[in-house]
Amino acid sequence: MRMTTMATMKATWPAWAGRAAVVWSAGYAGGAVVAALCPGYAFGYAAGGTWRGTAAEWTLAAAYALAALLAHVMPRRPGARWPPPAAWGVALLALMSGFGFLFSPAHVLDLLSRNQPPMDWAAWANSGVATLGAVLWACAALAHRRHRLAVCGHCGGHGHRTAVERRTRAGYLAVAGLVPYATLKTAWALGAHVGYNGHKQRPGMDEQYAGDALIRLYDHGVDITAVLALIGMLLALALTLPWGRRLPRWPLLGLGWTGAGALAPFGVYLLVHGTLVWAGVVDNGMEAIDGWVVVVAYGGFSVYGLALGLATRAYQQATRRACAHCPGGATPTTALSSTAS
User: Fold this and answer.
1) Cα separations (Å) of 233 from 96, 105, 196, 239, 253?
2) For residue range 235-293, what is the model confidence (pLDDT) as tens digits?
3) Between helices 224-238 and 164-189, what is the axis angle to 10°?
4) pTM of the model
5) Residue 161 in this model has a pLDDT that exceeds 50
6) Is 47 helix (H, G, I), strand (E, B) or coil?
7) How far apart are alpha carbons 185 and 102 in whole angstroms?
8) 51, 90, 259, 294: which could form a disulfide with 47 (CB 3.0–4.6 Å)?
9) Helices (H) and strands (E) in the chain — how many of each?
10) Do 155 and 323 touch, CB atoms closer than 8 A?
11) 3-state secondary structure of 289
12) What residues pair up with 196 in beta bridges, in sequence order?
């Protein structure tokens, strides 16, 4: 029964994505109102993950109440061009609220560290709900646009279309985006001080928080974040090269979309912030690190995140089975007819 229900939901998602966005937005807005009316019980609500307090909670409540109204209006304007861009804007707002959830797998490193702040489970759960909302709003935006263009709501009319060349370019670009970071952190672990003008013996390692295992690895020239960057490069190559086709599809898609959603906005922020630091407009609080390090090394996260998203999307299209709702990818269908009525 459960498998049948899940299969039905998957087969009909273009029809119910808009309604789900209404319910989610109204519920999330209601939670923000409760948090605003109950001082001391924020339930993890924060704008952008940092702006907290009653003002942020009321702002989020108003924003998502308007989002619920937007989701209610969208199926009643099936031919309008403006709903999908507005829906993508809400998805981006929800993604910013769920930013911490996408990075939550990194908390496993707490097992190898010390003096870390305690886990805020309310904020973690809230950001998880926000991430779900970002997915629902992205689905609603896709469904509306495809209905307006009179193409298949499930595959967009792509059918069996492959995107090997586009996927290859994006995958290699993603790898290139992480090379400066991995190179710099490895150089620091090996004793170099390029881009660093402080007095610490380990410029890339904070011994107050790093665990003994991480320090031992660093002493032998192995920086754990550089290792994670190499794993990220392997993910991009798995999405790009033929040997990746022998790996399970859904884990690759999950890792690809999660990495893109987490690192693209994070990298853009670091790139903008690093540029301002380099120009002397703001102080980054890391006086010992040159501004170009943040721009070149950390800004590469933005390149990686955006390119990984493109590679993941191309991989998803290239490995998609024949669309049961659009046989052969040649017959466009309108999957939102039920929502417009």
Assistant:
1) 24, 17, 25, 10, 15
2) 999 999 989 989 999 899 999 998 898 888 888 877 777 777 777 777 666 667 777 88
3) 170
4) 0.74
5) no
6) strand
7) 23
8) 51
9) 13, 0
10) yes
11) strand
12) 289
